[in-house]
C-alpha cells in the first residue's frame, strides 16, 4: 500500500498522508514518498495549487518512533552521529525547506492530532486550514529537546506564544492557532475537504506567474529577515537536545520520547 495518495483534480494536486492505522506517523518510506509527491506536483504544468492532507482521523502523530528510519543505531560513536545528523538534515530540515520553496501555492488541510514532527509538514505550506477538532503540540521539551527540527515556531506564532508552546509542551486548539495567526481558517471537521478545495480552486483561477512571484516575494522577505539562518541555527541546537535527552531522560540519543497521553499514541 502506498503511504502517500496522489491525485490531481481541477488543477489541484491532492497529496494525502496514508498511514491512518498509525495515525499517519512518519517513517522513512512515508517521508520519501511525500517528498516525491511534492516534486511531482512542482514539475507538473497541470498543477497550480498543492494541498497536503491526511486520510483517517488525525493529520499526523509526528515521527514514528517504532521504526528505525535512518539506518543508524543509537550510539555516541562519532561516525554514527555524523550519519544521523546528515540524515535528519535531509529528511527533516531539508525536506521542509524544499517544500516551503516549491514555486506554487500550497495549503495544509489539518484535522485531529498535529503533533511534533507533523509541524515539519504543515509549516512549510503557504496556507493552513484547520478543522475545529485539530490540536497542535510540540511536546519534546518534556524530554530535553527544545523543539522539532523545522524550528519555525517564532515565525508561525510570534515570540511569546512560541515560548509558551515550547515551555509548557501543552496542546493548543485550532482556535488558539487562528488567534496567533498560524492558521488561516478554522472550519467544521465535516467541511474541511470541501472548504479546502473551494479555496484551492479559487487560487487556481489566478495567473500562475503572479502566484509564483507573489509567493517568492513573501518568502524572500522572510529570508531577508533571517528565517533561513534562524532555522539552521535552531536545528543545530536541536542536536544538542538529543544529547541532553539521553542524559536527562534516558531515551536513546538518536530517538525521542512518547507523546503526551492526550494523543493516545506512542509516536512523536
From TrEMBL:
CDD domains: crotonase-like
Signal peptide boundaries: none
Top-level lineage group: Bacteria
Database matches in InterPro entries: ClpP/crotonase-like_dom_sf (IPR029045), Enoyl-CoA_hydra/iso (IPR001753)
Family to which the UniProt record says this protein belongs: Belongs to the enoyl-CoA hydratase/isomerase family.
PANTHER family on file: ENOYL-COA HYDRATASE, IP11341P-RELATED
Name by which UniProt lists this protein: Enoyl-CoA hydratase
Organism: Gordonia liuliyuniae
Amino acid at each position: 500500500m502506498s503511504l502517500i495518495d496522489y491525485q490531481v483534480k481541477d488543477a489541484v494536486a491532492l497529496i494525502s498522508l496514508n498511514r491512518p492505522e498509525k495515525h499517519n506517523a512518519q517513517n522513512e518510506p512515508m517521508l520519501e514518498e511525500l517528498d516525491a509527491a511534492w516534486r511531482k506536483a512542482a514539475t507538473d504544468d497541470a498543477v497550480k495549487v498543492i494541498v497536503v492532507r491526511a486520510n483517517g482521523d488525525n493529520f499526523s502523530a509526528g515521527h514514528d518512533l517504532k521504526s528505525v528510519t535512518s539506518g543508524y543505531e543509537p550510539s555516541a560513536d562519532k561516525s554514527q552521529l555524523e550519519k544521523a545528523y546528515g540524515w535528519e538534515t535531509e529528511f527533516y530540515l531539508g525536506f521542509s525547506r524544499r517544500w516551503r520553496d516549491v514555486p506554487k501555492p500550497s495549503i495544509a488541510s489539518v484535522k485531529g492530532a498535529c503533533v511534533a514532527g507533523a509541524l515539519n509538514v504543515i509549516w512549510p505550506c503557504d496556507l493552513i486550514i484547520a478543522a475545529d477538532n485539530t490540536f497542535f503540540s510540540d511536546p519534546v521539551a518534556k524530554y530535553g529537546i527544545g523543539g522539532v527540527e523545522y524550528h519555525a515556531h517564532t515565525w508561525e506564532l510570534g515570540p511569546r506564544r512560541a515560548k509558551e508552546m515550547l515551555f509548557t509542551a501543552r496542546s493548543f486548539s485550532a482556535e488558539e492557532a487562528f488567534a496567533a495567526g498560524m492558521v488561516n481558517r478554522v472550519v467544521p471537521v465535516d467541511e474541511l475537504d470541501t472548504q479546502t478545495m473551494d479555496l484551492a480552486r479559487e487560487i487556481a483561477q489566478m495567473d500562475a506567474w503572479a502566484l509564483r512571484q507573489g509567493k517568492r516575494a513573501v518568502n524572500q522577505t522572510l529570508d531577508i529577515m533571517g528565517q533561513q539562518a534562524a532555522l539552521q541555527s535552531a536545528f543545530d541546537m536541536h542536536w544538542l537536545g538529543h544529547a541532553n535527552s539521553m542524559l536527562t531522560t534516558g531515551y536513546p540519543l538518536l530517538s525521542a520520547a512518547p507523546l503526551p497521553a492526550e494523543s493516545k499514541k506512542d509516536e512523536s
